Amino acid sequence: HVEARSIHHVGVAVADLDAAVRTYERLFGGRLEHRELVDDQGVEAASLRVGDSRVELLAALEEDTPVGRFLAKRGEGMHHIAYEVGDVAAALERLAAEGVELIDTRPRRGMFGLEVAFVHPDSVHGVLSEVVSVG
Ligand code: CO
How far apart are CA 122 and CA 34, in angstroms? Predict the structure, then answer.
């Protein structure tokens, strides 16, 4: 198994990023940490600290993008859970050796300067899962 250190963030797909940021500030004392537009992924994201934890809000720039398709199919809501690990490449190697279905077979540059990779929900009881290293 992979030795996850903690849940790094919970990803939430939202229709309106500004409105969602305000909701998390107002309801749970969220503090905006980063905001980033990632053109090639068709997403604008905001990272909020909530206490010691973190929520990542994801809005689609276009319908024909991963988050856009998610929103069209399922509406707003929980999108993924991200686990912090020491080394994403090593985590992927370990998961692959255990027969886990990976979306990313290699680490890639995620938002906010993180190194990330996604694990298919079919291997995690329906939950899209991300491993992330803050390295
Ligand atoms: Co994430």
Answer: 30
Cα 9 to middle of ligand 1, angstroms: 6
State in Å: Cα 72 to ligand 1 middle.
Answer: 19
In DSSP notation, 39-59 reads GGGTEEEEEEEETTEEEEEEE
> What does DSSP say about strands 6-14 and 115-119: parallel, antiparallel, or unpaired?
unpaired
130 within 8 A of 45, measured Cβ to Cβ: no
- Residue 23 gets the label, from left (phi > 0), alpha (psi -120 to 50) or beta, of alpha
Ion ligand 1 — residues with CB under 5 Å? 11, 56, 82, 130
Beta strands in 15-96 (DSSP E): 31-38, 43-50, 53-60, 77-84
114 Cβ partners below 8 Å, 6+ apart?
Answer: 132, 133, 134
Cα–Cα dist 76/66, whole Å: 13
What's the pLDDT tens digit per position in 9-60? 999 999 999 999 999 999 999 999 999 998 888 999 999 999 999 999 999 9
